[in-house]
Every structure is written in structure tokens, then in C-alpha cells.
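Technical note accompanying the year-one report. For the benefit of new consortium partners, we illustrate the data format agreed upon in the data management plan: each record pairs a sequence with a C-alpha cell string. No post-processing was applied to the example shown here.
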Amino acid sequence: MAFLDRFLSERLRQADPSELTRARLTVGFALFLLLYDLVFMAQALLKPTLQWHALALGIPAALAYSGLLALIHRAATIRLPALLLCSIVALAMAGFIFALRIPTAGMHAAMMLLPALSVYLLGSRRALSFTFFLILTMGIVFPLYITRADSAFTPDTHFWEMYIFASISFLGAWGLGALHNTARDQIQLSLERTLKAKRESEGKLISLFESTDDIVSSVDLQGNLITANSALNRLFASAVGRAPLPGEFLFSNQAPDQQEIWRQLLAQVATGQHLSFEEEYPFPGGRVVYENHLHPITGEEGQVVGATIFSRNVTSRKDADTRLGEMHRTLVDVSRQAGMAEIATGVLHNVGNTLNSVNIATTVLADLLRKSRVTGLAKAAQMLKEHSSDLGTFFSTDPQGQRLASYLIALSESLLEEREAMNKEVQTLSESVDHIKSIVTTQQRHARTAGAIEELHVPQLIDEALRLHAISLERLGISIVREYAEVPPILVDRHKLLQILINLLSNARHSLVDSQTQDKRLTIRVRTTEDSAQLLIEVADNGMGIAPENLSRIFSKGFTTKKTGHGFGLHISALAATEMKGRLTCASPGAGQGATFTLELPLAGEEIPP
């Protein structure tokens, strides 16, 4: 091929494969005919009868072939040289058979070359004209010429039949060539379309590989590099000062133990496995964490021949996850502190209400003592002391002595009434002090058990939470409805659950206080789901309700509908529910129609999806 390409122009050497093939065939055929012509002239010179004919036809033909080769060396396309070649061959064939006057020369097998050659080089339509020229010249004109020019020649009975069949054969050769050419063109067109689609696909794939900052590469099962994108080249350049080379072991710059790990991973990929893992690499600027994905590359027969490696730098994400975890822990601590503050606020609120009762009771006692008629008893005793020597005369003749008995009776009755009133106030005072002690004890117990998981009865904990609000709820005229179903004990963080209950009861109390509803009602329900997998705690009120547009934001941090609210209570309650593998939800028909908060907790320890 290199020898033939020497006769081609530079543009023909750079032509597409089909054009280049036709150009090479044209050169090769022209060289063959030139050599054949030279051999023919050399042979003819040995025969005196053919010398003139050989030189008359051979020299022009040799010049034509040489000129054709010179033209091909300068041509931009093969069309004109191919047309000239077919024309020269047609004229040379006609000239030779007329010069030789051999009766059967027109039926020579070499004549079949022209239809086949012209179809391949020029296409079916242009080749048809050369085929008709061949049929006319070889099948009609030459037989007539032989039968009339040579009186000594007498054609046999099959002479014309043979030339007719020869003409049909010429046409058949053209037809077969045309069919082959059409099929070849279709195959070529399909191949070009396939190649174009492949190039476009490869271009898109390369563009995709190059447009990402992720590292994309492919290796064989031994870890030798096949392809790599620019991200890998940049990484290699920053690590070892150069880009990786195709065929090079991709992991050669890593430690021996890491190389062995990669070989084991590739061995797993060879079995068809898809692998994903994270790995930390040391770099001069610090550690870098990559998320690696390995996928098998299959060959034509379905066998694994290599692996693609996708690596993404997730250092920033890992650092962000670490910071997020720290922030989450901080938020949890803050939420716990806020929850404790919320409970403490409830404690102080209820202690304050109880202290009001204590203050009232002490005021009443002070007033009773100030107004007490015990002083009258002292005066009577002094009077009796003064008349101790003549009590009989004093009671019978002295007017004060005569009234003293009735006075003492009335005084004793009054003192009994005072005693009963004081006992009542002392009882109230004692109950208030006991309530304060109960509130403080409850707070201390929950503070000690914060974060501890224990088995508890939810209804009892709800009653404790209600007890913290009992005075304020009673004073505000809010009725409490308890609907407790039989539920099993649950393993839960007592402090977190109490924190949620305190927040929900506080929100319900505020909602009822702000509403114009006369029959203010707070309902607490405890039940399990139908499959007994979850425990449901519902806190419902018939207070202010929640507008539909606020339902989706009710648990968002900082969102509140209260003028003095901070928007933190429900948010930390939702976080606490999630930490307990539960879920806190809210439902409301609308503003002014109350709301129901539902806390779902798993009984079997499985997390409830958000």
C-alpha cells in the first residue's frame, strides 16, 4: 500500500477510506495495464507482422497510462482519473481487437473487466455507458467487421449466438457490479452513520467525563490504566508531577499494602460485583477523602475485562457532616436545656400560683388572729382572779358577775368558730405546701433521670405533667378530659417525653386562654395503633386552632403564632420525638376550631419514618 500511495496526491492520501481504496485501485490497475502494454509491445516486436500494429496502439496506450498516473499525483478527487482510466481501457480494448482481427477476440474474458471496473470506480450510472459501448463495439460492430472485412472467414452457426451471449454477459457483469456496488454503498452509508453516531456518542461521553470534577478512569483487571479524564491527570500531576500513562499500573504511587487492597478489589469486580467505599489519602495540603465506585466492564461475550473507577472528593462533605453532627449535638443539648427551662418555667408558674394560695391563707389566718376574741377570755379570767375570795357574792349580787356566765358561753362558741376557720386555712396552707413539695420533687426526679432510658407507664407520666399545670388550668376554668386506653409500659427517655408533654400542654393552655370559647376543654388520649406497633399520645384542645397555611411550618425553628412566643418549643419537641425514634404531627380543621398534636412512639423499638 505504501508503494501505491507514492503515486497519490496528498489530498487523496488523506481522503476517506472508500475514496482512498478507489484511488489505490486506479493506480494499481494503471500500473498493471502499463506493464501489460510494455510486455505486449516487446512480444510484438519479435513478430514482423505485428510490429506496426503493436507500436501504433502500444505507444499511445503507454503514454495514456503514464499521463493518468501523473494526473492522479495531482488530483484532488479520483473521479476524473477513474473516468479517464475506464475510457482508455475501453478504447485500448477496441483498438487491440480491431487491430488483431481475431474473430473470437470480442468474447475474451478480459472484456468483463471493463463493466466491473467502471461500476466500482464510477458508479452504476456512468458504468452503464461503458457497458453499452462494450456491447455495441464487441457484440455488434466487431462481428460485422470480421465477417465483412475478412472474406476468408466463414462464421459457423454458433458465431452470432456466442457474441449475443457475450453481450448479455457484459450486461450481467454490469448488473452484478451494480448490485454489489449498491449493497456496498448501503453498507458504507450504514457504517458511516454508525461511525458518526459512535463519534458523537464518544464526543458526548468525553465531554461528560471532562466536564466533571470527579475522577473517571478505566483499568484492566490487573489495574493497568486504559483511559482517564483530565481530573485524574491533574490529580496525578499534583501528587507525582506528571500525568499517568496508558498501560501503567494506576496505583503504583501508593503504598504496597494499598496496592494489594486495590488488587483484591479488582478481583471482586472481576466476579461482576459493584463496589462503593470511601478512602482517605494523604496529600501535602492535608488529608483528602474520596468516595470510590467500581463497576465491571464487560466484553463482547459478557466476560468482565476491566473496571471503571469513579472517584469524588467528599472531604468538604465529610467536614460538613462532622460540623453538622457537632451542631446537632449542640442543638440537642440546647433543646434539653430549653426543655428543662420550659419545665422549670412550668414549675415556677405553678409554684407561684400555689404561693398565691399560701399568701391568701396566711392573710386570712392573720386577720382571724387579729380579730380573735381570745382577749375577752383573758379579761374574764382577770375578773375571776380579782373576785376569787368572794365568787359566790360576785356571781349573785354583782351585775358583771351575773353576766359573766352567758359571756363565757358566747365566747366559747365564738372561739370554736375561730378554731374551725383557722383549721380550714391551715389545711389549705398545708395542701399548698404539699403541692409545692410535689412539684419540686417531680422536677428533681426528672432532672436526675434526663437521658436515661427506663420502662414507664405513659398515663402516669401524663398525670405528672398535668399536675404541674393543675393550679393554672383549674384557675382558668379549663376542664381536663382523660381518655386512657390500656397500653403496655414503654422504654423511653422520661425527661424527653416529659419535655414534649409539658410543651404540648403549655401550647394547649395558651390556645385555650386566647380563644373566646366558653367551654374550654383539654383532652388527652392514650392508645395504640391497630397493629399494636406504636403508642399514640394525643393532646387536643378546642382553642384557637391553626390556619392551613401554617400547618406545614408549625414545627419549624423560630416559627410561632404567639406574640410573645420564641418558636422553639414545638421545634425541640419534634427533635426530641425523632431522637426517641418517634414522630410528632399536628392536625387542625382551621383557625378557631382547635388542634390535635399526636406523638407516635414505637413499642417494638423500630424507628417510625418521618
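Partners are asked to follow this layout when depositing records. Residues 320-444 form one domain.
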